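hey m, so remember when u said the tokens were messed up on ur end? i reran from scratch. heres the input so u can diff it against urs
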Amino acid sequence: MSSSIVTQVPQSVWNKFLPPLYVDKIEPEAQEWIKEILIGLEAAKDVEDFEQSARYWIKSLQKYFDRSYSLTDEQFKSVIPILIRFVFADQIDLPTQAKWFTTLNVVLKKAVHLCRDPSLTINWELFYSILDQNYLHISNLNFKGYSTANFHLNAWRSCLKSARKFWVSNSSSNDLIYNQISNFIHPLWNPHDLSIFKAVFIHNTFAPTSFSSTSNSILILNNLIFNHLSLIENCSYYDQLFFHYFSRVAKSSSSPSSSSSSSSSSSSSIVIPWSNYSPILFTLFLKHFDLSLSGASKGIPKLGKIKAPAYLRNIPSRSSSHSIAKLIIYMLPLRNATTNSNHNETLWNDLELFIKSIANFYYPTNTGKWTNKLANFLQHLVTYYYKRIVRENIQNNNTNNKRFHDVVIECYKRSLHSKTGGMIQAALHVSGILVLINPESIIKILIENVQRSLDINSVATTQTPTMIETLSLINDQILTEINNNFNSRKNNNNNNLKNENLELNIFEELGERFLRIMEETLLAIDVNDMFKTRATLHFYLSFLGNEKFNLKGNNFWEENKERIETWGEGLIDRIIELFRHRDKMDTIKKGVRRNVNYHLVLNG
């Protein structure tokens, strides 16, 4: 292999912090190393040595990437075909193939900017041959070495996800690939045979999700939703695979770069009218959660659920709650909120009705087999909303943020009081994201809930660990609002400030309420209550280690320095009392003692 393709090797950003003597040697050593690896891979391919040479040079390439090096475009174009030849060879065993899938996945991720290069097109049938040979038959149920098969399947799946971008060189090729896959699985679409599950699995795994025009997209979705989706009535696995595929289609069509990254033949962006399908989809979502509606099922016989073949159910797949939440978020018209108002309003109204239908099942007294599904759904719904507005750079759209906040706020407030571990974890996760979307509302809700749980005369004292733990997740936003409000009051007249913005009333007293919570939570450090003690210490550590909590600046904290010092003395007394009974306290054995000793320094 000619050495002319070896140019400057992209370096890790951390290399500049090394001593100058090493920095000067990194570039020439990296160039010599990758040159030797590429020559070795080329030689191993020429002699078809899949044992010693291929194993050695692919392992060396993985080590090269582990050191945060990358490749030039010419080197990517040379190494990807070689790796594909090795990975899909018949002579290698599954553990070795799994390791090589991992290396190929790393290369494809780093070379994603070359996915439209015709010389790097990857045939989807290569991945299907691996799946069909090892997993899509009843005989695979007796596969020896489950851990090996699981490792191999996960590596194959990760590599497949990266390889999908290299299947076509332009958007019109997506239509050809989809037609090819549709013709391949067409004989399997038989609702009276289990082969239909194999058909929908292959379709979900390999079918493209972006197409050359809006008309083609609508034609394909009409066929899937109105024809194929209704073939099996009562099988969650069947619906789940369709939800996963639809969510990927919705994300592809909503991407701001979906049209710009496509071929120039696609003159207009693809807009899918999801409002045409939302009544059917939201009805299926509600059915999929399998909620117990009081009186609705009396006298109505329940149909037996249809199960997919065991060899398909053994293949791990994304949860239905995850796919449903992703599909809902990417169906919403967040970027084009001003166009096609009837379409936009229909989707928002359908979402509001759907959330109202399931909101009562978030009450702590209404738990059942659906609780974990609903907890995961709420968590993923909020997560995907925030991911999308950041990805599409529309996080400053207050209209969308307010409407989404109003939709999910009731479910969120009810989940805060749950006694189920899964729902509590979801509420903690949602708190940290919703506070970035609407800090005024979330901070007010959590401050009031914490103070109510700390009231000894309240029945909500059992919620104290959860409320304190939730508060620790948003302390950065609370400290920011306290400092901003202090600066505003210092630069403006208080009366004018109140008249200009009534929303600031919650923040004008936020500092005082936060100090009161700090003082009242000292009693929560109890040697007999491990969970409450752990949550309280976590709460303290979350703001003691924050630079915004500074006693030496001209700020709110400096004005209340004496009060904070008194609180610090009380905290030290509680910690000393805790250490005296450390044999009774499991929290000490789990590392809290070390963290407390490290962070209990009140700014010097």
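this time it looks ok to me. DSSP finds 27 helices and no strands in the chain. if urs says something different then somethings off w ur setup not the seq
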